[in-house]
Design brief:
It catalyses: N(6)-acetyl-L-lysyl-[protein] + NAD(+) + H2O = 2''-O-acetyl-ADP-D-ribose + nicotinamide + L-lysyl-[protein]. This is NAD-dependent protein deacetylase. One of its GO terms (molecular function) is NAD-dependent protein lysine deacetylase activity. Belongs to the sirtuin family. Class U subfamily. Pfam families: SIR2. By secondary structure, the chain is an alpha/beta fold. The protein has nine helices and nine strands. Strands 3-2-1-7-8-9 form a six-stranded parallel β-sheet, sandwiched between helices. Strands 5-4-6 form a three-stranded antiparallel β-sheet. The chain is elongated and about 60 Å long. The termini are close together.
């Protein structure tokens, strides 16, 4: 049995699926990941500072102009569209099979595909707030700002993207909800993540269900615990799974 056939069969037998995803979920939508050969962190020689430095809270506060230049040019992909993975997950939620998407991504593609139960561990580029008065600004407003550093129209303070930077803590409520969702799941699908970024990666250890599917191009520390390993591109695999499910072959 092919891996996508096995995955489709298990999906058909499950009623409480949770998907835990990382940057690899969106690469087929044209958004680069971080740690692969073509990832953002491999472009250091082309950048004024290492990405990990520019994406830190300290750097944001001390060099907001450099931060936003990097952020706008490398982190924002407003024209990106959901791929086969995002679309299948949204469909499974509508059917009542998928209970939650837990994502390390900040691109909002799961919501764009139609998912409503999305736990964003690292925030979202679509939410931006004035650091003084907390007024909300959309991604479009941040991108349209004429100044190098977007500032609040009411008090002139910096508008900060609602994304978790290095040196910042993850939202505790989101973490709690993620632990609860994973611990209750009967099937866990992990996709597009190296499972090396903490504390997010440790969340998968709370899974107590029967089946773990790990979909990632490279090996991870969790490979030996997975019931099914898939290394093909996630979007393509999920498209094939969708076809199998729609034809009733699972």
């Amino acid at each position: 049995m092919k891996p996508e056939e096995r995955l489709a069969q298990w999906i058909g037998e499950s009623r409480n699926i949770v998907f835990f995803g990382g940057a690899g979920t969106s690469t087929e939508s044209g958004i680069p990941d971080f740690r692969s050969a073509a990832g953002l962190y491999r472009q250091e020689e082309q950048l004024p500072y290492p990405p990990e430095v520019m994406l830190s809270r300290t750097f944001f506060m001390e060099h907001p102009d450099v931060f936003f230049d990097f952020y706008r040019s490398k982190m924002l992909h407003p024209d990106a569209e959901p791929n086969g993975c995002h679309r299948l997950l949204a469909s499974l939620e509508m059917e009542g099979r998928l209970q939650a998407v837990i994502t390390q991504n900040i691109d909002g593609l799961h919501q764009k595909a139609g998912s409503s139960r999305v736990l964003e561990l690292h925030g979202s580029v679509h939410r931006n707030y004035c650091m003084k008065c907390a007024r909300f600004y959309s991604l479009e407003e941040v991108m349209a700002a004429e100044d190098a550093v977007p500032r609040c129209q009411h008090d002139g303070a910096i508008i900060k993207p609602d994304v978790v930077l290095y040196e910042e803590e993850l939202n505790q409520e989101t973490l709690y909800d993620s632990v609860e969702a994973i611990s209750r799941a009967d099937m866990l699908i992990i996709g597009g993540t190296s499972l090396t970024v903490q504390p997010a990666a440790s969340l998968v250890t709370y899974f107590r269900g029967a089946r773990t599917v790990l979909m990632n191009a490279d090996s991870t520390p969790y490979d030996a615990k997975a019931n099914l390993l898939i290394t093909d591109p996630i979007g393509q695999v999920m498209e094939r799974v969708a076809v199998i499910l729609s034809t009733g072959q699972a």
